[in-house]
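In the previous lecture we treated proteins in isolation. Real proteins rarely work alone, and many bind small molecules. This record shows how such a complex is specified: first the sequence, then the SMILES for coenzyme A.
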Amino acid sequence: MDDGERRRAEALRAPGSRRLHALARALVRMTLSSYCDVAPDRWSFAPGPGGKPRIAGPHDLRSLRFNLSHTDGLLALAVSRDCDVGVDVERLDPLADFEGLAEVAFAPCERDAVRAAATEQRAARFFRLWTAKEALLKAQGLGLGTVDPRAIIFDAEASPPRLARPGGAGPWSFRALRPTAAHVATLAVPAASVELQVGWATPGRRVTPPSGSRPLPGLSGRTPSRRAS
Ligand SMILES: CC(C)(COP(=O)(O)OP(=O)(O)OC[C@H]1O[C@@H](n2cnc3c(N)ncnc32)[C@H](O)[C@@H]1OP(=O)(O)O)[C@@H](O)C(=O)NCCC(=O)NCCS
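The predicted 3D structure, ligand included, written as tokens:
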């Protein structure tokens, strides 16, 4: 961890939160290093205008983008190249206050779709929509308070998720993931097709970069011997 990350860790009171923070830093640094010859402790990060962390150095590797999400029992990290990416992971809580949360974050048609779902499907439908919205906001680097999530409307029946009204900001693609039986995640990218990998980390287990991650062709900071053929 760098000084800023250490200061943030020290500010966290609960030991569990401190451990999660450290695990997240390790997952980000080790995963980014799996794509190029940069030691995990050499990465530096800086927040974008909306607070989204981005790579600040090494300077020539800023084409790599990432986004992190944490929830009870799981961390998700999405990495992309040359385009923004957003990820959100949530634990499927069947006892969540769907009505109350949908009131503040869902459009009327989305609320109706959640209400219409069979009881055993309600949590999955709710969190699929929720994570899709949040992944889209996170891909754009927008935080709570800058956009009304009720204005971002998804087709509640679509799989993978699809915007009901795409708007003028170009195409968005979404990938629906189910990393465990208890977790739902969605990825958002502003393109029809991108090079993208997702890494997961579970508190209490060893951090490993995404399976199949390898040095990416064309990224500098690597030694020629590791260049992909
Ligand atoms: C940070 C934010 C964007 C997501 O918060 P969250 O759901 O509590 O947290 P997640 O676990 O999914 O993501 C946290 C990570 O996102 C990253 N992040 C921080 N600010 C971000 C931003 N503006 N954009 C994208 N990613 C951001 C960080 O890496 C952070 O982890 P870290 O603090 O350990 O580095 C939050 O401030 C927010 O505003 N979310 C929108 C929530 C919303 O409107 N929900 C309604 C349903 S759509």
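Summary for your notes: The mean pLDDT is 85. DSSP finds five helices and eight strands in the chain.
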